[in-house]
Design brief:
The complex is a heterodimer of chains A (178) and B (597). Chain A is built from 5 helices and 5 strands; from the N terminus they run αααααβββββ. Chain A is mainly α and 178 residues long. In chain A, the strands form 2 sheets. Chain A has a two-stranded antiparallel sheet with strand order 1-4. In chain A, α3 crosses α5. Chain B is an alpha+beta fold. Helix content of chain B is 27%, strand content 27%. Chain B has 14 helices and 29 strands. In chain B, strands 20, 21, 22, 23, 24, 25, 26, 27, 28 and 29 form a 10-stranded antiparallel sheet that branches. In chain B, strands 1, 2, 3, 6, 10 and 11 form a 6-stranded mixed sheet that branches. In chain B, a hairpin with a 4-residue loop joins β1 and β2. The longest helix of chain B has 19 residues. The relative contact order of chain B is 0.11. The chains are: A mainly alpha (178), B alpha+beta (597).
């Protein structure tokens, strides 16, 4: 990140995050910052046992099982015509969307139509809105919505109970018996 | 322990669901239970629907803990989504449509006959056992979510097709009890459950929408079956009441037939392109057509005149192996609409079933898939004085009717039958996949609270076959007469002593009675004796048997008895023989065994 970018990020974070601002203050005075608080407010619930495999793999296996997404992305497509790719992509697209809907129930962050002008007041959440273009010094910020953003309204992944030896399997090999 | 919840279970041909409703409070809130189930080996997800499929694995699966569930380990079988997916890959080990077999009286439903046509070395289960496993899964899912409310202590309502005969209801109940559901289990007809779901949504507003004399047609097209029910609005002490007037015959046509019809059409186009589909691709095509059907029947004006249907390559080379055809939207849409809901006359009827030996081996699927012609026949049969019954309102049920195109077609056909007096569509019940389970839970609540209920009693009259006395003629069966034992509309919790002559029952060996039902003979009373009837009037189902002990007082090997029929509080049919010589009585049981007929 260039220094310009860093300067902007520091500026906004100091502006919006009071606790973080207090940690930056000694830096400006030439002192070393205090250590970040390490004790979480609530101790995490001790899980019964370590998950047998990573949730990311669960999701990948789900997208392959239900939408063949891994097959689709892994296949080199340079030699196929658009029509050939199109024939496959409709099904992969439909089924991938169904998985995302079921797991994350995605919704736009901003319900305004893209292109419409929106205004952000001083207390807007910088994690939910990213400013781009000619950014002035002070809010409120007025600009056109370039992307409505996405947010998950849930995260419901499959629970995996398999053996450790299968923890890395995304899709098993299939053998057809006759 | 007192019940805290009303639980409604929809045991469907292709999907099952469980809904529940807390009994406390005055405003019932019906919720759906998310059912944890295997979606792949060792992978559990919660889904609102439990596909009614059973995959019979083996030792290897149990050892690998592939089919472990939170409540049971080392299983050799799986039900739900995993089993449904296996139907494509391993059809000979996957049980489907077990419910259709439950009411198929030509097979012994206690014998392990499913998967149908599977090779001898493959494990098999009976239709009753398969239904038990689906229900046991739902019961266990409930228990996992509500540990402090044992399902055996709750008010459980299980739905059955209105057209299920008493033997099929008995078998459903048997499967439910084996699955751990309580003895107090109530069976509710699916179309009625759909009406209850509507009532749950409407509250007391329904009294404004309907008036005395109105007739509501419930048109329920499920995955594998179609059911018609007519509900009338009557008045009692100034209150509007709902009374179930009639139910139709069991029609084995449903949404799955539409998918298959479209798949045949698309397969023909593949053949024209010179593409031969293998068995795996054919099943995959069927699944693609299910999705395509929903798009084609959605009723929105399409931008594209063509709709692609693809079968993805099976290997990892997905794009390379994908084959596809483009069907004309209009042609494919009309194939479905004209094939299943054709414009027809109110005097039309379905083509008769072909009686070829081959067809009797599997399920007796309908020869005529035209649901409108079946409907015309139903309304005519329920009419009076030569006039067909005219519904004033229509309530749709079943996922098929998510399609506006199909709903509109049915309205237009019925409008042509009753010019100037078209039926009115009922709004509500938007979630057609879950309406039956939700309605069943609401009924459980309404039953406890004495809230609005649909009355009606039995939807059929029942008869036992009595052989006439007289000289035996060699080579000819004795003439048969039908004795009415249950009149149409006999209420739950009542019994009837059947008047008439005593019947001589053989002692010491099983006595078997042929058993008939009628959806159209509404005026017969208990004791009415029919000398002749047409096939359209009386339908024969599973026979009844009783064995009287040989020690009983008997005259020349015969014990004189009279019949007493009962419809229990739970809606179950019972027939008893009372001895005329003593206080003894014996219950007649349905003989669902295969008698080699």
């Amino acid at each position: 990140m260039g220094r310009m970018g860093l300067a902007f990020r520091v500026f906004f974070r100091v502006l919006l995050d009071a606790a973080w601002a207090e940690r930056v203050r000694p830096l400006l005075a030439g002192e070393s910052p205090p250590p970040a608080s390490v004790a979480p407010a609530v101790a995490p619930k001790p899980s019964k046992k370590a998950p047998a495999r990573n949730d990311a793999l669960n999701l990948l296996a789900m997208l392959q099982r239900e939408a063949r997404l891994v097959d689709f992305v892994q296949e080199p497509i340079a030699d196929y015509t658009d029509a050939q790719i199109g024939a496959a992509v409709r099904d992969v697209h439909r089924d991938s969307a169904a998985v995302l809907k079921r797991v994350f129930a995605l919704e736009p962050i901003c319900n305004e139509a893209e292109g419409n002008t929106i205004e952000l007041t001083g207390d807007f959440d910088a994690a939910r809105y990213r400013l781009a273009g000619q950014v002035p010094d002070h809010p409120p910020f007025r600009g056109a919505l370039a992307h409505h953003g996405w947010q998950a309204t849930q995260c419901v992944l499959a629970e995996w109970t398999g053996a450790e030896s299968a923890a890395l399997v995304v899709a098993p090999a299939v053998v057809e018996l006759t | 322990m007192t019940a805290r919840y009303a639980i409604g279970i929809d045991l469907g041909t292709t999907n099952s669901a469980l809904a529940y409703c807390a009994l406390e409070g005055d405003a019932p809130r019906v919720e759906l239970l998310n059912v944890p189930q295997l979606v792949a080996p060792a992978t559990i997800e919660e889904r609102a629907l439990l596909p009614s499929f059973l995959y019979l694995g083996g030792d290897a699966d149990a050892k690998a803990k592939n089919f472990d569930l939170p409540w049971e380990k080392k299983r050799e079988f799986a039900v739900g989504e995993l089993a449904r997916r296996q139907a494509a890959d391993v059809p000979t080990r996957t049980v489907a449509a077990a419910k259709s077999w439950l009411c198929h009286s030509r097979v012994d439903r206690h014998q392990p006959i499913l998967p149908w046509n599977a090779p001898a070395d493959v494990p098999k289960v009976s239709p009753v056992a398969a239904a038990t496993r689906y229900l046991a899964h739902l019961a266990a899912a409930w228990q996992a979510a509500f540990r402090d409310a044992p399902i055996a202590d709750q008010h459980v309502v299980l739905t059955v097709p209105a057209s299920f005969d008493p033997a099929a209801r008995e078998l459903t109940r048997e499967a439910a009890l084996a699955a751990g559901l309580p003895e107090s289990l109530v069976l509710l007809e699916e179309p009625q459950a759909a009406v209850y779901a509507w009532l749950a949504d409407e509250g007391d507003r329904w009294r404004k929408q309907m008036k005395v004399g109105d007739r509501l047609l419930v048109c329920d097209v499920g995955g594998g079956t179609t059911d018609f029910t007519l509900v009338g609005v009557t008045e009692e002490a100034g209150n509007l009441m709902l009374t179930r007037l009639a139910v139709g015959n069991h029609i084995l046509v449903g949404g799955d037939n539409m998918d298959l019809a479209l798949a045949h059409y698309a397969a023909g186009m593949f053949t024209q392109k010179g593409v031969q589909l293998d068995p795996w691709q054919s099943v995959a095509l069927w699944h693609s057509c299910r999705a395509a059907k929903e798009v084609l029947l959605a009723g929105e004006a399409p931008k594209n005149k063509k709709h692609p249907i693809s079968v993805l390559g099976r290997g990892s080379k997905l794009i390379k192996g994908t084959v596809s055809v483009e069907v004309e939207r209009e042609a494919a849409g009309s194939l479905l609409v004209e094939g299943f809901l054709p414009q027809c006359d109110l005097n039309d009827g379905p083509a008769p079933r072909r009686a070829s030996g081959f067809r009797e081996l599997g399920l007796p699927f309908e020869t005529d898939t035209a649901i409108t012609r079946h409907l015309a026949a139903f309304l005519r049969a329920q009419g009076e004085q030569g006039q067909a019954a005219r519904p004033t309102h229509v309530l749709f049920n079943g996922g098929v009717f998510k399609s506006t195109l199909l709903r509109e077609r049915l309205f237009s056909v019925m409008s042509s039958w009753f010019p100037g007096q078209p039926p009115q569509g009922m709004t509500g019940n938007e979630d057609l996949d879950y309406a039956v389970a939700r309605g069943a839970a609401y009924y459980g609540f309404a039953k406890q609270r004495k809230a609005v209920r649909i009355r009606g009693g039995t939807a059929r009259s029942y008869y036992v076959g009595i052989e006439t006395a007289g000289l035996a003629i060699p080579g000819a069966a004795r003439p048969l007469r039908a004795l009415c034992v249950v009149p149409f509309g006999m209420e739950e919790g009542t019994e009837s002593n059947v008047p008439g002559d005593e019947i001589g029952l053989v002692v010491g060996e099983p006595a078997q009675f042929r058993f008939f039902s009628s959806a159209v003979r509404k005026d017969d009373r208990p004791g009415t004796l029919l000398n002749s009837w047409t096939d359209a009037e009386l339908a024969e189902t599973d026979p009844l048997v009783a064995t009287l002990p040989a020690s009983e007082e008997a005259e020349e090997g015969f014990a004189p008895v009279r019949f007493q029929s009962r419809i229990t509080e739970l809606g179950m049919f019972e027939l008893w023989c009372h001895s005329s010589l003593s206080d003894h009585r014996w219950k007649l049981e349905f003989s669902v065994r295969d008698e080699g007929t």
